[in-house]
Amino acid sequence: VSILAFSGFVSQLDEARVSSVGFDDIIAKPIAPSRLVPLIEAHLPARVPAGGKFGIGRRVVLADDDPIQLKLATFRLSRLGFEIEAVGDGRAALEALRRNPPDVLVSDVMMPEIDGFALAMSVRQDPLLRKLPIVLVTSSYVETADRDLARRAGANDLVPRTPELVELVDKLRETLAQTKSTEPMIEAEQMIDLEREHGQRVFRQLERQVMLNSGLAKRCSALASELAVLAGISEAVLKHKDVYLALDEALAECFDAGGISIGALYLVEGDQLRVRPIGSSTGSAGYGEIKSFYGEEKLLRELIARKKLVELPLPPSDDRDATLHAAAPRLLEGAHATAMLLVPVVHLEHSLGSLLMVARGRELDRDDWRAFAHGVATQISHVLTLARAFADRESAERRATDHAALLDALVESAPDFVFHLDLDGTIRFANRPLPNFTHDQMLGRKFYEFLEEEQRALVQRALEKVIDTGEPQGYDMAVMIGGRQSWFSSRLGPIRQHGEIVGVVMISRDITENKQTEMHLMVADRMASVGTLAAGVAHEINNPLASVIANLDMALQDVSEFARDLPPELAEELRDARSAADRVREIVRDLKIFSRSEEERHGPVDVEHVLESTIRMAWNELRHRAKLVKKFAKVPDVDANESRLGQVFLNLIINAAHAIPPGKHDSNEITVSTRLDDSGRNVIVSIRDTGTGMPPEVRARLFTPFFTTKPVGVGTGLGLAISHKIVTQFGGTITLDTDVGKGTEFRVSLPVAGASEVAKPRTRSATIAATRRGRVLVIDDEEPLAQAIRRFLSSEHDCTAVFSAGAALDLVRQGERYDVIFCDLMMPQITGMEMHAELVRIDAAQAARVVFLTGGAFTSMARDFLDQTSNRRLEKPFDLKELRRLVNELIQ
């Protein structure tokens, strides 16, 4: 037989004592008669359902703020074999779930702070609880929309509450029998919609509760006040009014209906505490007291943080919180209050603030007052959260709109092509159409259709790799657009929605100019390498050539002295050899003009000298195609760079030769002329041919990099572009006249060098006879040349030859002194520059007597040294007479 105990004051200790003396349960009074029968039936022997005790070995967390309903459900489910953990609200339910997850959660819907919907959403947001089955039970939320909201909030179902809980039992059996567990996931963007609908359903339920409980006058008044708060703020939210003004009006009506004299709503906003005074007795003086919580603001912040409910006056025996107990009399006295209630405003365990209610001149029923305050605080938390959610959503929508507008502007104005492709390569969006197409012609077609066969395979592989791996891919590709080849660098990346790849974005950038620049640099690098090689070759030729010329000159001198005793042909053969050596010397000198790849300095340049050298270099191209006519006027030097100017003239002369087919030498001419313009400030160099001429379309693109009319492998298309750049850098211009079938004339205009820049040639006297026998030291790693110089000078001077700078330095250190020191500039181990520096340190006077012999300064360091030093220099190969004149001059 079940024995039940009824009591009006029940604590956990009382309940434990009742159980220990034999009572089956203790029922808290008051209890409505309609609830008494189901409560008694719950303690009667259970009828075993058809499905048996399916709850054996399973735990249930049961949440309900109504103690009677909680006990009824506990008895009913425990008799089905379930292990029950009963809790009185949503917060306690969350704590129980996280402490020890059960097999299923059963919860009432209407509960304070965290109701059943909010509890379900919280569970689904927790990764550890996400798979937990949830069944919500209600006596109030009976509409289809309520059930739909419950499922969307994460519950398995919402069932009505009946006396025997038949629907709940059936739903539990069905839910637990499912073998496949689900893991519903509430997306972030869905949460705002859920919370808004949650607020709407709460509002709807409150209205329904008012109608159902209209017979309970006091409760009805309290619920009406709560609804006033919710309705006022909801209307403000829906109409985009100031939610706080609506809150003030709604709470004022609510407090008036509840008989509350004054009060306040304290809201936490970051580190600030926002105060909304309520009531007619809150003037400027009253506002200051309320804002400071009657001088206890620090205590107020602690209570809000702890989400603590405070009722004043405190019971005499309640001294658990010493600080609050000490402050209670001061609070009541400062507010002139007979009673005071501070209720936490909480949403999903997050403290929003506290609601203060103050009564003056009367005592209020604690239970009714607490229920009223809880209801109002709950509604405030719901609506404030909803209002903030709306504000956040509107802000997010504004940001999204702004970002979309910005993205549209960026995409539309971007210099790149931007495409949105489906997984099969169909174009869904293009910020601009490809040349010769319109948007309508491109959208809806596969991107591959606009490409060549080889290009299609490349793009298709990249697209498939993006879809398969989710990793961005890139490639460079040449395509024909508008009849010309263009290079594009493309980057493909995945477009994801909900973690799935639904498309591909492709960004293509025209890199034709970059490719042309790369090729330009490659050509320039090859030209620089050839120039450096040519300079080195010239140096290597000049050294033995100087020895050959010196020995030939001495041989000719000897032959002239003994002509009677030698065959007459011998002198002629030596003169032919000497003439051939001079020709080699001229070739090397011409080669040096085109080998100074590192030299960028400007200075006075003899145009005629550069043209003569250029013509000799290009002679093989000219002589089979046309007669060469030279018309050189006497013109001043120009301000330019000899090497770069030679590069320009060589390009123009070679182009003129190539404009004339070979084999028609007698009927064609190439005329090279120079003159001074009318202003006298520019030298005009003209190169005219009688070749094929150029049509207008070719002339329009003549100076465009990589444009060429020559066959593949013959020209790079860079010659005229580079020439134009070089001349422009000198402050000059290139112009042309052309006529198809009659020929072309290029005119290069170059500024005359300033008077201060023109180099005056050194005035040299005729042969100078030796006034005394001097001491001469010759240093050159080319032993034949050094010996030839020694033999030639020995007739007039004491001459010593050594073959390394080290040997020469040893002689100076040993005390030897010389009138003239000939030193090769470029030598192994110790160069002429290094030897000169050491000689300056040992004996500066001897260093001043050094004359540098150079076969070509082919490094920038050597050229800089020669530009800076005041010492004489002698270019190899040199004339022996010039050598003797220089020695005699220095000794004299």
Notable traits:
alpha/beta, Beta-Lactamase, 29 strands, 28 helices, Rossmann fold, 5-stranded antiparallel sheet, 5 domains, 892 residues, 5-stranded parallel sheet, elongated
Describe this structure in words.
It is a single chain. With about 900 residues, this protein is an alpha/beta fold. It contains 28 helices and 29 strands. It folds into 5 domains: about 30-200, Response regulator (Rossmann fold, 3-Layer(aba) Sandwich); about 250-375, Transcription factor LuxR-like, autoinducer-binding domain (Beta-Lactamase), CATH 3.30.450; about 415-510, 2-Layer Sandwich (Beta-Lactamase), CATH 3.30.450; about 515-575 and about 770-890, Response regulator (Rossmann fold, 3-Layer(aba) Sandwich), CATH 3.40.50.2300; about 600-750, Heat Shock Protein 90. A 5-stranded parallel β-sheet has the order 4-3-5-6-7, sandwiched between helices. A 5-stranded antiparallel β-sheet has the order 9-8-12-11-10, with helices on both faces. A hairpin with a 5-residue loop joins strand 21 (about 670-675) and strand 22. Mean pLDDT is about 80; it is low at about 10-15, about 15-20, about 710-720 and about 755-765.
Indicate the topology.
Blueprint: E1 4-7, H1 12-20, E2 25-28, H2 33-42, E3 59-63, H3 67-78, E4 83-87, H4 90-99, E5 104-108, H5 116-125, E6 134-138, H6 144-153, E7 157-160, H7 166-177, H8 188-212, H9 217-238, H10 243-258, E8 262-269, E9 272-278, H11 284-291, H12 297-306, E10 310-312, H13 322-335, E11 339-347, E12 350-359, H14 366-413, E13 417-421, E14 427-430, H15 439-442, H16 453-469, E15 473-481, E16 484-497, E17 500-510, H17 512-561, H18 568-593, E18 603-605, H19 607-622, E19 627-632, E20 638-640, H20 642-658, E21 669-676, E22 682-689, H21 696-700, H22 719-729, E23 733-739, E24 743-751, E25 775-779, H23 783-793, E26 798-802, H24 805-813, E27 820-824, H25 832-842, H26 844-848, E28 850-854, H27 860-868, E29 873-875, H28 880-891
